[in-house]
Description:
By secondary structure, the protein is α+β, with helices and mostly antiparallel strands. A seven-stranded mixed sheet has the order 6-12-11-10-9-7-8, with helices on both faces. Strands 15, 16, 17, 19 and 20 form a five-stranded antiparallel sheet that branches. Strands 21-22-23 form a three-stranded antiparallel sheet. The termini are far apart.
Amino acid sequence: MTASPSLATSDHGSTSVGEIRAQFPILQARAHGRPLVYLDSAASTQQPEAVIQAVSDYHRLHHANIHRGVYQLSQTATRMYEEARASVARLLNAAEPAECLFTRGTTESINLVASTWGRATLRPGDEIILSVLEHHSNIVPWQLVAEATGARIKVIPMNDAGELDLEAYRALLSPQVRMVAVNHVSNALGTINPVRDIIAEAHAVGALALIDGAQWVAHGPTDVQALDADFYAFSGHKLYGPTGIGVLYGKRRLLDCMPPYQGGGDMIERVTFAKTTYAALPNKFEAGTPNISGAVGLGAAIGWIEALGLDRVSAHEQALLRYATERLSQVAGLEIKGQAGAKSGVVSWVMRDPPIATLDIGVQLDLRGICIRTGHHCCQPLMDRLGVTSTARASLGLYNGRDDIDRLAEALTEIVASVRTRVSASVSPITPASESLAETQDLTYPAAAAQSPEAAADEIADLFEFLPDWPMRHQHIIDLGDKLPVMPDFLKTAANSVSGCQSTVHIAARLKPGTEDVIEFLADSDANIVRGLIALLQQLYSGQHAAAILGFDAEAYFTRIGLDQHLSMSRRNGLASMVQRLRHLAQRYAG
Ligand code: PLP
């Protein structure tokens, strides 16, 4: 490994990135024959052996339902669950563990506040302030409660670097504002927001402040009392812990006054058919059997990261962020989105010259064993503000070193070079504009590739079987996409666009001239992988009778040729949307 900083442990030892990486079983794996490079920690961090072991030990040795059993096993499980809560309180510097509620994650934590505090408190004309940097999980719950109560949402804008405009924030503040809900760190750009100031200014007008800490807690020390946060939310799976467990911190005086979120066992004091009284904190907000093993795993993750020292984690990630920013800036045609002065370990970018769809970047990197995230990152309003539909994002964890960044930068340089070669060999991945083709009748629509969709499917399957692995099949799909018949720009209308795909997709179908039920279609996308999938669909469907199209089970077929294993869920959904569009058209002519 090239010069990676060390992280000192709390017992004054020193742990190198290599030693940390060795604690993560999954990072010893290979992907497509290459050592795995994991750069998607903002989506989910991986779990160290200490966490995996703690969860496993819990299941093997200590599992029982909590709070109710008189037997020792139940008491041990209860103790472990409550110890995990104490660890959370220590991590956040909460005044007491009872202020730390276990939830399924950040999303549920925010929904809890919006639906309990929000519905009980908000009145028509009240205002909620969010920021343009928010994840959908800190937007949609507030929209739901605003619709239900008549409250209004206002949005803090940002500058081009991705920093919140604090002057604009101040201008939005007024006595009507009841809640300011912003993230501590933006998941899409990495901006670290000045939450202490944001909270203080919210309090100055009598508003509460909720901080979405999903992207912060694993990256630096948190002190909810020093911040004076009213609510603070985070997820275990972004803190080297398990999925399905998260936390809502809330000040006792607020939680005490809020109505329960869900009703059920464990959250009651006394139930009669006439009236129920509720348990004290934290049980009032933890109805039903909770995720006990998840809490135990989260407690172990907190212990593990505390032993490394969050200050040192932050120093390591900041140094690596600087290196990543420098290396990626050197990739020709790459434009980094989000250049805030204070940033966490996230680099988001788009490829401008040559333009390469972020979906293709993600797929190409995956083939080289590199995991990054592409898409809108659940931040569509932010993407709109940036004027893009998606970005590619590499996000750092404390197991990443400079070697990971080198692999990423080298792979990107290689991808850019190969696209340049294809463009200069005039196999353009971009459909040339064809305004001169005024009439759809002048266009060449793909004729039937075989007697029936089934016969075409067999031919494709034979070829796929011949190609030994996914990288080769993937290349074949890309090659098919390169030969896609031209779809002129004038056919790329809103009516022809297909929603539900991760990239831009248009389909224009027609009845083959001189027939009453033969469907032909042109289609295109900005992503090469999708163009390849379109080519497969054309081989299956274009030039076939409507009834034959309807009779063909595309989903079973895609499973047969292994696409279900290799396409992400969003791409499978995109493929399903295209098939659905063609089936709708076929229905019209099936007679
Ligand atoms: N908020 C931010 C800033 C996030 O990055 C995420 C997840 O990516 C969430 C909220 C939602 O977290 P979860 O899916 O764990 O509930």
